[in-house]
């Protein structure tokens, strides 16, 4: 047995109980398993010999003690080999899991996720983004100049509908550079074809073409070190969720703000002045909304939707129900006569044809990185240009309760 251990490099030539641990690093896991099996069998044999001789009164106690010492030596050898085996096995298992986690996938959807993750990691770590990643995500520049966000990522962030901005389900959304569109979908050779006098007046005053501008904004997606080093799926989900939420928040803010920034007044439904949307009043919110619907020209009334807060709707239900539970089970459209979209940003209910509410993203979307030095969080940053045009104000009404005058 001693010669076997010596030959396998587990003992130094002088026979000391000192293990050649350096030799373990050069051995394979299979070798360690074989050695552990060999030493384990020898240990079991010695244990059996001790049991047999201990039960034999004719055996000398010195022989039994010698066997016990041999057993202890063999046990030490077994424990050392097992420790090395367990450590190597754990390391190989870890490497296998990492390799499996980050190895290229054959699934097209997973390949896109992996490419997105590579883009986010490379940007944050300030390392070059490979051409393969850009091509996989639909790089539209091909020149390696400005850091434009690849087409796939840009579409997922700014074009694909996202539920956080409730207007996306009913408004128009495009991604066209220098967009100009007619306010009316069609025209006739008869100058008097527009039945709605308010629409005709608006077209005469403001023209029949809408030109979209470029209003820059940035969205920051914070990435912790643990997320950055985690799986592709978690990284992409975290970054895209943050960017989509930021974009949606910007869209809602410009559309519903009552105090828009200079140059962004036209984006808000609640703008005041000569170009404001007509406000219709009623003795309570229910009657104000019903009057606003009726005040719309039939061309817009047919496709009208009500955007309001859930709290306003709840007050209407409480007032109409008058103690009855039946009305609480009714759909909002059954109560108000038109489809309802709830948004806490709608200070006053907006009634109208929201196909005339149009978001357009101009130019390509730039991406970059930043770092919050206070928290140490890395930031994946996008810069986008967006405009929101209310193509025809006459397609909308704002419902107000009498006495709640807007300054």
What's the helix and strand layout?
Elements lengths: L1 H6 L13 H4 L4 H26 L6 H42 L5 H17 L6 H6 L14 H9 L12 E3 L5 E3 L14 H10 L2 E3 L3 E9 L1 H4 L3 H25 L22 E4 L2 H11 L2 H4 L3 E4 L1 H12 L10 H5 L3 E3 L7 E3 L4 E16 L4 E14 L5 E6 L6
Parallel strand pairs: 1-9, 5-11, 6-7
Antiparallel strand pairs: 2-3, 4-10, 6-8, 8-11, 9-10
CATH class annotation of the largest domain: Alpha Beta
Characterize the main sheet.
5 strands, mixed
Which CATH architecture of the largest domain? Alpha-Beta Complex
Q: How would you state the average pLDDT, rounded?
A: 81
Number of strands: 11
Helical residue percent band: 40-55%
End-to-end separation in angstroms reads 99 Å
Global geometry = elongated
